[in-house]
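Standup notes
- HV: blocked on the assembly model, inputs below
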Amino acid sequence: MLREIKVYRDLMGANDEWAGRTRELLAAKGVALFNLIGSPGAGKTALLEALGARWRPKPAWAVLEGDVETTRDAERLQRLDIPVSQLLTGGACHLEAKLVHHALKDLDLDALELVFVENVGNLVCPAEFDIGERAKIAVLSVTEGEDKALKYPLLFREAQAAVLTKTDLLPHLNYRLESCLEALAQVNAQLPVFQVSAATGSGLEPLTGWIADRLRETKAPSSAQARDR
Amino acid sequence: MHEFSLCQELTQALLQEMARLQPPPSRLLSARVVVGALRQIVPETLIFAYETLTKNTPASGSRLEIRPAPLRLACRACGRQQEIAHWVPACPACGSPDLDLQGGMELYLDHLEVEVDDAPGN
């Protein structure tokens, strides 16, 4: 006998539950979580290194490094005395909320204001998974081509800020900055774009200002944050 | 490659749903998932993951049906509602970027088709 059963079960449910737990945990501790997403080689670790070296006064922060293999990125940040934990996915192309939640619980959250998660280098999969972040930040370099926002719209739609890295290379590239900015605006007209160079430190201040505004909202939850969610 | 992660969730969900059914089904014939147009899921990869992950489970040999859900936009400026195939930055009717995404991010197990052994005496 054949039976048809109507189910309706959200397949992101389990991940979203962990993400919800993370949001509760971080709200209680007044800590803001930022999820950095970009291609391999976009300059995510270099951006964190530059922030570590140049951000003054720097909030109390830690980094969770997501990679498929090796602890190389974590070692780079440790050299700068940035507190860092390495999360290895062993093949998976993105971080999931449960792994991030457990890693956060191993940090001394009472002593922190801010945690960056450097997601696995990938413009596709990490955008699908909520990890309980305050904001996704898309990291895109000027060596990747101007049309990435159009090709990977989900990330740029979901992100609350974009960082355009390696801008010190612009004089050496046949790169149409305007086309990149147009593509970003087409996908997400509200997206603030920060043009930075980790090598020279240029453009970091507006970015740290934007992050500091988000930290203030986290410490004193406002209607702005409620609206974003 | 996140299709494998999603498929783990999917197989777990459908095995739980099967275990809840009374009378218990003898086998699963098909499962249907609804996938929104903005979900970056490759159907072939999801089906490959499904075949791999259901092996040696009560769902083994069943068919996965992937039903696409269109991108549905409502324009807050002109009120026009429409279904489209690809993301657009502005309302095709009035050009406003103030769009409300009403569909396209769906991802759920929708429907199961199971076989139930006829009880003796039926």
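- HV (later): unblocked. The longest strand of chain A covers residues 2-10. The beta strands of chain A are 2-10, 32-38, 61-67, 84-88, 114-118, 135-141, 161-165, 193-195.
- Next: hand off to the docking folks.
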